[in-house]
Protein: Helix-turn-helix protein
Organism: Krasilnikovia cinnamomea
Amino acid sequence: MGLLYNKMAVGNGLYTDHPIPDLPFVDDSHLPLDDPAAVEAIGRKEGGQSWGRTDRCKDGGWVAFTTDALRSDLGWVVRWHPEHGRSVVLYRDEDVADAYMSYVGEALLYRAGGYWWDGTTWYRPALSYDRARETYVNRPVPAALTISAADQPPGDPGNGTLWKITDLDIDMVKPTASRRWRDDLALWAVRHDTGRHLAGCVIHLTAPELAADQLVDVAELAEIAGIGASTLRAYRARGESGVPLPQATVGGRAMWSRPVAEDWAEDRRRSYDGAARAMADRDHDNLSVGVARIWDYLTNAFTIDLWDRGHRKRFTLRWRTQAAVREVAHDLAWTATASLDRIIPLGDLGTTIHAAVLFEFADWQRTTPNEQVSYPINHAITRMLDWLIQHKPDQAQAVVAQIVGEAERTLGISPEITGFSLRQALVLDGKLPGENAYAEFLNLALPPDN
């Protein structure tokens, strides 16, 4: 699938099959466009000042990129498909590696600020990330139509411009006016000569959601995302928060399609920051509701300790010594320590550790069916068991006993193997020092010898 595409191209290669509208054409005849390894090799030089890479794609094609041999500030991405030909796109060198990664999947080309085409279907920019599957969600564009080079109004190749890469000034060459670009495109059609019919050369797409009267500006995008327009402008200026590329620029103003704006707003809501906002306390929006409740509880508890239990005299000047303050702090610290079961649901934690260890054992049996002398336990699970042993040893003893018993009854793992596995895990990942740090506890928690 297409990955997040957020780098602006600066030019088309002359031998591309799919020109990007309104960008200049640049002579790419010095590139070995039919050999991905050779494209990569151009940038693979000692010293780390140039870059290159190639990858095979699932569709039978390949993608490669390189820093240009003549212009170290520019780089090329070449994406080839056995049926649809190739795209040759020029980027700033600091952008080319990130742009390259967005072509490694199914995307053959990108248009309109990240809308992408897989050879059959147009999809919206990949903005909605599925963390469970670790992939972006593909969302097809309703009623999308592909515009080919054959669909373009005719131009005059005699008035077209083909740039040498050494002459191209990317800060001066802006996207050209449509009339001038028609001439550039006509010159490309005469010169590029890859044998592909113009009807198979993709230029752009059209769709109802990309109509001019359906686009939103910065203020509307910010409103959809639930942020201020000034915040959005700051995000764009600093390249933060994954703001999508605009779909068009109208009168110098960046414009986005409404579905793209809504997808970005959705991803912001689904982000880790979004989850934090969803569980924020009503009175302290920078704190989760659970942290705020603990804070309130300890505030009340400390108030009782300091005011209602005879400590008021400690506020007089003669009691303001380090030793007196330490004594009060000692009492308050005990109040917090004794509140451990209010802060952490210890019973639920024990049940979770029990279930997690048994899952680890069962998973090892499934993936490694041979007889085991011990079963590795995930580091994080071991550290939680270690925490419970140190903070609530009586409850930890019950959890260990349940693990041993159920492992024997349901998985056929002997208590000796379970006990050895727990000892080994705690020695490796527990925080207490020394191999014998847990020996006495485990001798009491594990079943007695027959």
Q: What stands out?
A: The mean pLDDT is 87. The chain has 15 helices and 17 strands.
